[in-house]
Specification:
- By secondary structure, the protein is mainly α.
- The chain has four helices and no strands.
- The two termini are 36 Å apart.
Amino acid sequence: AKGLLEDAGAGIEISGPDAFAQEALRLLRNPELLAARGERARQVVMQNGGAAERHARVICELAMEGESRR
């Protein structure tokens, strides 16, 4: 998830409490940037929603195939 958000320009890597405070203040002072990052994050979440369920289904299908081959 981290990589997806960063690739979309929505995630921000923070190295510690001071960096977090600086970034939070920068975003709060620039509502347009905050809104743009929020929208990109929302899009990433919507595009990747259900990924865990899809992966679980594939794993179950592969496990069932493996069992039927025995």
